[in-house]
Amino acid sequence: KAGVTQTPRYLIKTRGQQVTLSCSPISGHRSVSWYQQTPGQGLQFLFEYFSETQRNKGNFPGRFSGRQFSNSRSEMNVSTLELGDSALYLCASSNGGSGNTIYFGEGSWLTVV
Amino acid sequence: SQELEQSPQSLIVQEGKNLTINCTSSKTLYGLYWYKQKYGEGLIFLMMLQKGGEEKSHEKITAKLDEKKQQSSLHITASQPSHAGIYLCGAVLTNAGGTSYGKLTFGQGTILTVHP
After folding, report:
1. pLDDT, tens digit, for every residue of A12-58?
2. How far is CA B33 from the centre of its chain?
3. How far apart are the C-alpha atoms of A90 and A87, rounded to whole Å?
4. β A10-13/A108-112 pair status
5. pLDDT, tens digit, for every residue of B5-55?
6. Which of A56, A99, A109 is opposite residue B31, by nearest beta carbon?
7. B94-100: long-range contacts at Cβ-Cβ below 8 A with a sequence spacing of 24 or more?
8. Which residue of B has its CA nearest to A106?
9. Which of A39, A66, B96, B100 has the greatest number of beta carbons closer than 10 A?
10. A67 to chain B, minimum CA–CA distance in Å?
């Protein structure tokens, strides 16, 4: 069974640009969550999608957005990049219910210069 | 203050020693997850606890959940260099009609170093 796949693994962007990250969850999983990890703030929840609907949202500005497709694959987009957006972005997948195991991908390293 | 506090923040032990990492919540726990991370990589799932008093083990790692104290502990027996890494606890802290199980709040992590 394939794990959670994130692409790209590494990318460098310039301030003001936008970026799209992709996540393919484990087959059969309907919930995909996104997290931002930085040395200063640790792991912070961005949002969760369940069956193509945003079910939970963290405290991030509107520049951060996401979507989920009918095959459960998800994308997150960050517009008007700032230097502070440099981080490891992690995607997690699960069945979305109580007691379900939540699996994480390897992450996408974003550097904003 | 943090909703989920981990202690200690870092730990250095000699190979073969036992160690414990704690995770304390300021809110009701609806699920508690333990992960291990190598720097710059993804999170590796270790264990998930949901019921008070629950205890799970995998190889030399045991996790317990104390519902009354809103606390979980992760215990490693006879540590090995392969146990080195960052240990993270993540929790479901809300139960909005069963729709919050995809949202985890994380502690700040515990950096474990094991000297051979």
Report:
1. 999 999 999 999 999 999 999 999 999 999 999 999 999 999 999 99
2. 6
3. 9
4. parallel
5. 999 999 999 999 999 999 999 998 889 999 999 988 999 999 999 888 899
6. A99
7. B94/B27, B94/B30, B95/B28, B95/B30, B98/A97, B98/A98, B99/A50, B99/A55, B99/A56, B100/A56, B100/B30
8. B42
9. A66
10. 15
The length of chain B is 116
**Which of B66, B80, B58 has the alpha carbon at shortest distance from B28?**
B66
Distance (Å) from the C-alpha of residue A100 to the closest C-alpha of chain B? 8
Which of A4, A43, A107 is the closest to B106 by Cβ? A43
Alpha-carbon torsion (B21, B25, B28, B30), positive or negative: negative
Pairing relationship of beta strands B55-58 and B61-66 according to DSSP bridges? antiparallel
Q: Is the pLDDT of residue B102 over 90?
A: no
pLDDT, residue B96, reads 67
Using CB atoms, pick whichever of B33, B101, B104 lies closest to residue A96.
Answer: B101
Share of chain B above pLDDT 90, in %: 75
Q: Fill in the amino acid letter for A96.
A: G
CA atoms of A62 and A43, how far apart (whole Å): 19
- Do A112 and A13 meet the contact criterion of CB atoms below 8 Å apart? yes
Test B102 with A50 for CB contact under 8 angstroms. Answer: yes
- What pLDDT is attached to residue A53? 95
Burial class (CB in 10 A: 0-12, 13-18, 19+), A27: exposed
